């Protein structure tokens, strides 16, 4: 963490720092600027630990997939060919772009100079997230029409292909829930940032949201080859 | 003792007004001031209330189970009621009592105090974690009581997904929700310990209890998400028909077991590391000696936390796995016993030539050491594959894990509760009763569970409500022990409640202990300290090394007032 150099910098023109300090950081036995820097560092530290937890969460899902795929290679290849790679690729592009706008927003907020840029990038991020969900919705409709839901009317003959699609539905829904939470967090930042011009400036919440957002994107980067590429090579 | 004293302490109108800030207990009396508090000390109390409730719900189920097992025939319960009861018992005791027990009550209360902080790093998250715990707990307990679940606390597939017609999904969702409360607690403790230590409180000056909380939190954060996934997959398969583990469609039920135990083995360390932390504090205080081998105690905690992640396969020796995998898991299970043994030796080393007193907390702690040793040694039996094949799914296993989880961890919880009770509540309890309960608990426990080792070794399987008559003697002993144990568990409920109302006021440091938590009033003010603590030396400065014991060191009066 870069808290050390942050701490050293004196903060001028911040009469409101005191107002932004929260328990228990407000009680630290230092001046407000240092306490605020530690509060910021604390927020990012916490989200990193939470992300470690998330990595284990998705890691367990990926492991389950890997084990099932190793045991049922042909069925997984056949099932993989049924997913819609156009929607999948489009969504990958959308999400990666959203990571870019999110990163710009986070940096702009940290510098504290570019409020409109920050707000604009946050809005773009939320919009791209929504776009992903819309595309996903179209894809789900098509999947349902093609009878790719495990059960009695499943389209493919091989039974283990149902495991592939069980995984597909589960993991994409879990990912979409994560993404929706992300959109909610970004929207909250936009709403607060518009009401209070100083809100976004150096606010650790922006970086926290950004880190979470990047994780959700990163998960998709793994999901894309797992869901859309099997059976499509060669 | 004035009749006007309020149970919340420091509100005695006759008391001299020293113009000190009021205690956290007197700082607001409304229900709101409790339910919306962000004070780590009050949240600890909230947790204490809920886990006590869960403990007695789980205990009631165990009582019925033991009642049924008193005779070989089925006379009290039908088979499926029996199944539902031991599931209720296991689920509630593991997830809603034991896992949150020490971390969320004593840990929440003490971690900030011990490191000289005003609160945890994220006070609101701390409160949210309690609500998640209560929400998940209510959901699960409602499902377990209204509908019942017959899968056992392990929810093994395909039984839980395909065959069981009971309320599995709701229960699983309850456990899932509570998992987030564990993760929140873990994140909070890790950040608190990293970021909020008082000036001078370096890592190797941390009390061992804090180290125990730190390593436990690591496991909360890294193991619980895997449980979440496992449970999610069960719900997906059961409720939404997404067949992940269904063998009929090429799925692998053993995979479920791997995921489940990847969480649940670390979970047993989640249950026992905090207990080790508590016991380390008690033993050094009551033998008036510096803890023997402090750094080794720290490394042992870390080693257990790390190696504990790689031994889960020892629960599956008979489920089908490659012999090489079995070998590795067996070996690692032996390895993880080494740091545990180091701890036992170091506790013994601390006691050796100490001036050991026999107040109630140390009685619980000594009980812990004995029972933990037995539980740990039988764990080694189970880690060796040939023996495990013989006793797997018998009462031997039941006895083993109860020695660790109940014998060791619950004893430590009670020991810690008695030790810090004066600090938490500002009151003292009747010491004679407390000693009696501690001793009764030890004997009741052994009477309950030692016979189960024998019955199990002789081949009595677990989870049946009937059994061959030749096992009856062991079961009668065990059920008799359970009755003793029930009394021993109810006694603290009685005298500790009594002490809240009528107990003497506690002094700030009734045990003459070291540690920052004793350097503030009992009970502490909302801000924890008067002024800002600074730490100048290592922990456990009881008795300088190389100095002969002082034999006439003042001791507490053995009963009544500690003041
Ligand atoms: C009065 C104290 C207790 C008694 C008499 C008791 C009794 C029992 C009995 C007889 C069983 C075996 C059920 C069977 O498999 O047939 C059992 C299982 C179990 N107990 Fe306890 N127990 C007590 C306290 C606890 C506590 C405090 C915990 C907390 C961790 C606990 C955790 C478990 C677990 C995890 C199982 C396994 C459940 C299963 O696999 O289905 N027990 N207990
Ligand atoms: Cu284990």
Automatic annotation (TrEMBL), chain A:
Residues 1-22 are annotated as: Disordered. One of its GO terms (biological process) is aerobic electron transport chain. Keywords: Membrane, Transmembrane, Transmembrane helix. It comes from Methylobacterium variabile. Pfam families: COX3. PROSITE patterns: COX3. InterPro entries: Cyt_c/ubiquinol_Oxase_su3 (IPR024791), Cyt_c_oxidase-like_su3 (IPR000298), Cyt_c_oxidase_su3-like_sf (IPR035973), Cyt_c_oxidase_su3_a-hlx (IPR013833). Residues 42-232 form the Heme-copper oxidase subunit III family profile domain. It is a multi-pass membrane protein. One of its GO terms (molecular function) is cytochrome-c oxidase activity. One of its GO terms (cellular component) is plasma membrane. PANTHER family: CYTOCHROME C OXIDASE SUBUNIT III, NITRIC OXIDE REDUCTASE SUBUNIT E. Belongs to the cytochrome c oxidase subunit 3 family. This is Cytochrome B561. Its main location: membrane. It is found in: Cell membrane; Membrane. The chain crosses the membrane at residues 45-65, 85-105, 117-135, 166-190, 211-229. It comes from the Bacteria.
Automatic annotation (TrEMBL), chain B:
SUPFAM superfamilies: Cytochrome c oxidase subunit I-like. The chain crosses the membrane at residues 44-65, 85-106, 127-147, 167-196, 208-235, 255-279, 291-312, 324-342, 362-387, 399-421, 433-454, 474-496. GO terms for molecular function: cytochrome-c oxidase activity; heme binding; metal ion binding. Residues 34-536 form the Cytochrome oxidase subunit I profile domain. Pathway: Energy metabolism; oxidative phosphorylation. Cytochrome c oxidase is the component of the respiratory chain that catalyzes the reduction of oxygen to water. Subunits 1-3 form the functional core of the enzyme complex. CO I is the catalytic subunit of the enzyme. Electrons originating in cytochrome c are transferred via the copper A center of subunit 2 and heme A of subunit 1 to the bimetallic center formed by heme A3 and copper B. This is Cytochrome c oxidase subunit 1. It comes from Methylobacterium variabile.
């Amino acid at each position: 963490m870069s808290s050390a150099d942050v701490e050293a910098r004196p903060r001028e023109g911040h009469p409101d720092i005191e107002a932004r300090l929260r328990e228990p950081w407000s009680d630290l036995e230092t001046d407000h600027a240092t306490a605020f820097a530690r509060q910021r560092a604390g927020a990012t530290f916490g989200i990193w630990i939470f992300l470690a937890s998330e990595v284990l969460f998705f890691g367990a899902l990926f492991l389950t997939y890997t084990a099932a795929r190793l045991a049922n290679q042909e069925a997984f290849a056949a099932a993989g060919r049924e997913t819609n790679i156009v929607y999948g690729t489009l969504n990958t592009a959308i999400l990666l772009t959203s990571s870019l706008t999110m990163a710009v927003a986070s940096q702009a907020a940290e510098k504290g100079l570019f409020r409109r840029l920050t707000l604009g990038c946050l809005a773009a991020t939320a919009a791209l997230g929504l776009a992903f969900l819309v595309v996903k919705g179209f894809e789900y409709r098509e999947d349902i029409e093609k009878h790719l839901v495990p059960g009695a009317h499943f389209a493919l003959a091989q039974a283990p292909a149902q495991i592939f699609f069980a995984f597909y539905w589960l993991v994409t829904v879990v990912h979409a829930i994560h993404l929706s939470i992300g959109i909610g967090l970004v929207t909250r930042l936009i709403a607060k940032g518009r009401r209070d011009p100083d809100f976004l400036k150096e606010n650790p919440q922006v970086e926290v949201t950004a880190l979470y957002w990047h994780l959700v994107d990163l998960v998709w980067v793994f999901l894309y080859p797992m869901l859309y590429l099997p059976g499509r090579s060669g | 003792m004035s009749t006007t004293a309020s149970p919340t302490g420091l509100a005695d109108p006759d008391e001299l007004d020293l113009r000190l800030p009021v205690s956290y207990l007197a700082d607001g009396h409304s229900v709101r001031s409790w339910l919306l508090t962000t004070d780590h000390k009050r949240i600890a109390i909230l947790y204490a209330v809920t886990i006590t409730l869960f403990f007695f719900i789980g205990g009631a189920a165990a009582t019925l189970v033991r009642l049924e097992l008193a005779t070989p025939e089925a006379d009290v319960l039908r088979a499926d009621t029996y199944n539902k009861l031991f599931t209720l018992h296991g689920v509630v005791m593991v997830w809603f009592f034991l896992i949150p027990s020490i971390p969320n009550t004593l840990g929440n209360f003490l971690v900030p105090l011990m490191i000289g902080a005003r609160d945890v790093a994220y006070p609101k998250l701390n409160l949210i974690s309690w609500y998640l715990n209560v929400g998940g707990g209510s959901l699960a307990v409602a499902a377990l009581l209204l509908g019942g679940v017959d899968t056992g606390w392990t929810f093994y597939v395909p039984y839980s997904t395909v065959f069981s017609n009971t309320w599995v999904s709701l229960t699983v969702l309850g456990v899932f929700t509570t998992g987030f409360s564990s993760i929140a607690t873990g994140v909070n403790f890790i950040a608190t310990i990293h970021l909020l230590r008082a000036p001078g409180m370096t890592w190797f000056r941390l009390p061992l209890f804090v180290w125990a909380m730190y390593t436990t939190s690591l496991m909360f954060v890294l193991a619980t998400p895997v449980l979440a996934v496992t449970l999610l997959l069960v719900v997906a398969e059961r409720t939404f028909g997404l067949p992940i583990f269904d063998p009929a469609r090429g799925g692998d039920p053993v995979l479920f077991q791997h995921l489940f135990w990847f969480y649940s083995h670390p979970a047993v360390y989640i249950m026992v590391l905090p207990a080790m932390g508590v016991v380390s504090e008690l033993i050094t205080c009551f033998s008036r000696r510096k803890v023997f081998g402090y750094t080794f105690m720290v490394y042992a905690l870390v080693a257990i936390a790390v190696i504990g992640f790689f031994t889960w396969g020892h629960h599956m020796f008979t489920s089908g796995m490659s012999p090489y995998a079995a070998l590795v898991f067996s070996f690692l299970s032996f390895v993880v016993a080494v740091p545990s043994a180091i701890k036992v030796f170091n506790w013994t080393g601390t006691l050796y030539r100490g001036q050991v007193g026999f107040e109630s907390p140390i009685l619980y702690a000594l009980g812990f050491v004995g029972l933990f040793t037995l539980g740990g040694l039988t764990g080694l039996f189970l880690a060796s594959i040939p023996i495990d094949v013989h006793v797997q799914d018998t009462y031997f296993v039941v006895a083993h894990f109860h020695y660790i989880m109940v014998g060791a961890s619950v004893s430590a919880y009670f020991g810690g509760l008695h030790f810090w009770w004066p600090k938490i509540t500002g009151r003292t309890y009747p010491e004679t009763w407390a000693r009696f309960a501690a001793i009764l608990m030890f004997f009741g426990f052994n009477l309950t569970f030692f016979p189960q080792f024998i019955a199990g070794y002789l081949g009595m399987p677990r989870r049946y409500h009937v059994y061959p008559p030749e096992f009856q003697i062991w079961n009668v002993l065990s059920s008799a022990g359970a009755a003793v144990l029930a009394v021993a568990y109810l006694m603290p409920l009685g005298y500790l409640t009594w002490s809240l109302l009528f107990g003497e006021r506690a002094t700030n440091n009734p045990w003459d202990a070291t540690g920052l938590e004793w350097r503030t009033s009992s009970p502490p003010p909302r801000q924890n300290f008067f002024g800002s603590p600074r730490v100048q030396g290592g922990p456990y400065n009881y008795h300088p090394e190389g100095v002969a014991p002082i034999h006439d060191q003042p001791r507490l009066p053995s009963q009544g007032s500690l003041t």
